[in-house]
Amino acid sequence: MLTDVDLRAHLLAAGLAGAVGTTREESLRSYRLFAARDPRLLIGLDPEGVWGERELLMLMADRCGVSVDPAHTSGHDVIDPERTLDALDALAERLAVAAGRGEPVLLGTGHPHRMLGFYAALADALSAAGCAVLTPAQGRSVDITTQFGLRTHNLDYVRGVGLVRADTGERPGGEPGAHTHSPLPVRTALAAAADAGGPLPELVIGDHGWVCGAGQLGFEAVGAADVNDPAPFVGEAEGSVSLVVPLDDGVRSDYYLPLARYVLNRACLSQ
Length: 271
Hints:
The chain is α/β, with parallel strands linked by helices and 271 residues long. It has a single domain (4-266), classed as 3-Layer(aba) Sandwich (Rossmann fold). The protein is built from 10 helices and 9 strands. It has helices at 4-14, 24-35, 39-42, 53-64, 81-101, 112-128, 184-196, 208-216, 230-238, 257-266; strands at 18-23, 76-79, 105-108, 141-146, 149-158, 161-166, 203-207, 221-225, 243-246. The chain has a 7-stranded mixed sheet with strand order 4-5-6-3-7-8-9. Helix 4 (53-64) crosses helix 9 and helix 5 (81-101) crosses helix 10. It is globular.
């Protein structure tokens, strides 16, 4: 069994916490854009409070462990591994509750090339425990604004995890999907579930627009976020997002699998 000591060592060795790949410049730029209410950084969140750059820096220092010094403007940013471990423990507790109640769940990621395996492991275990893993609006078209303009994507599910694929004739089962921060996929999925009269999720698990978009609509949402994505942490501070695990979301996909094993062991769920 993977202990917290083992996982802490893995977090540091893999660059998931400690000194991470995200640069301080990236983080500070994101905080400036969020403070200006740039929708690319809000990713579906409509904050209630006024969040200036200083307030965001203080929040991210509290939730992630980044330096609170605004004069620190270069180099790699940092994530405190103890904060990551604490959040993973809290995630395990919430999954255990979901499994015990047999809650319907919805999972989705804007980082399919990196984090699909992590969420898929959670989906497999929750399904085995009796939770309905929902896949509403599969195949539905979603128009998402990208750096290249408005592009049509298709909503798909891989092992129960929602993602989008660029509408380029790509066959399901090929590349994992497209990277996106957009909340439109989860909004589309939740609207389709409501229209169908079927079960709605009692818990949404994901990142980027999946967690912020669902939380903004009043669904309980938990997930992971990097230090250059302040929106989920603002949502957590204001109560629209239930839980955020701070970690680097851009490392190798297999580096996230020990985290899934740790969470599922803590939750006493089968893998």
